What does this fold into?
Amino acid sequence: MTAGAAEPAPPVPVGGAGTALAARTRGLRKVYRGTVAVDGVDLDVPEGAVVGMLGPNGSGKTTTIRMLLGLVQPTAGEIELLGAPVPGAIDRVLPHVGALVESPGFHPFLSGRENLLRFAAAEPFLTGRGLSGRALDGAVTAALERVGLAGAARRKYRAYSLGMKQRLGLASALLVPRRLVVLDEPTNGLDPAGTQEIRRIIAELHAGGVTVLVSSHLLAEVEATCTHVVVLNEGVVVAQGALDDLLESGSPALLVSTADGARAVDVLRDRRIPARLTPDGVRVDLATTPSSAVIEVLVGAGVGVDEARRERTGLEEVFARLTHDATAGTPIDARADARADVRADTTPDVGDGASDTSHDQAGDAGGSTRDGAGDRTGTGAGR
Ligand SMILES: Nc1ncnc2c1ncn2[C@@H]1O[C@H](COP(=O)(O)OP(=O)(O)OP(=O)(O)O)[C@@H](O)[C@H]1O
It folds into this structure.
């Protein structure tokens, strides 16, 4: 597999220099005939970040992603992609956005290569430069190699496994250089090697300055690949921000390295600060005392402190806390007010459902195949 196209990134289409967010939503809401799928989502996807979108089944990840891409019409709210309003400027923005989403797009009786050639022929980045058929073929070959599908390129799409379909969708998303790549559960149907490849491709995109928004159920993958996370629960953002901040916010404990651990514990306990000796150092409970006060107490008592750092919690634990009890803890970018209102509004919005575009309805049909054929495709001008 190759490292991918070495083409320069396309020019900034919209929004101009200094746009700090590759995607931004405010008050984004979607109601499907009485079901509140997404409720007041304020999403910030920083440029150049790899943002993992997490949430239990039915928490609104796919609906949010589909609204970002202009595939589902929001009931309310604002969306900006690459600094431009969506859906208003969607035609200008989409060529710079690669996406892997559920949507029927590939022809079952054409091969993977032929399908990709159809997509390539509709990419303004390729056709706008007057590239020859041979050059289009080269772009397709590179994309197929990049996702590990070169060996099966001439097989009919209908004979592809779910994982191969997934790879072809990814190839179409990466046919040309993108500024933003949106991947909805890209490891769905992939074996462990395929999952590793997705990890590598995301790392490559990140190294190239591309912003990536990826939804996933695989917390270990998100922890390994993402710089930022957004956690959805019942259609509401319950945490959003840098991954490191989220992991540190998950545990109200300080780990203190000191040569005199036993004495440190005694000093802290004398001050009614819960502390215990562990193999990693002295673990101090910060539930009632800020870390600065802990250090002050220790230093004041003459205990030498070599290092003090917030204990990190695994993403799995943080995720469970945020999504099982959405009112517990203090998530970064806390939205306790919004969480309290989750599902409070069960009244369908005026025009709900009926206001959806035909594209939306097509997407809904695609959604029903989630566990079936798994037809997915990349976006770009080829849609
Ligand atoms: N086309 C639709 N018509 C009616 N309800 C829908 C439609 N699409 C999604 N929903 C509902 O909206 C809610 C959010 O669904 P969504 O698919 O966005 O969640 P998700 O977080 O992507 O779930 P999963 O992890 O299972 O993929 C769910 O209650 C779902 O049943």
Notes: The two ends are 26 Å apart (CA to CA). The chain has a mean pLDDT of 79. Residues 251-312 form a domain with the Alpha-Beta Plaits fold (CATH 3.30.70.790). The longest helix spans residues 192-207.
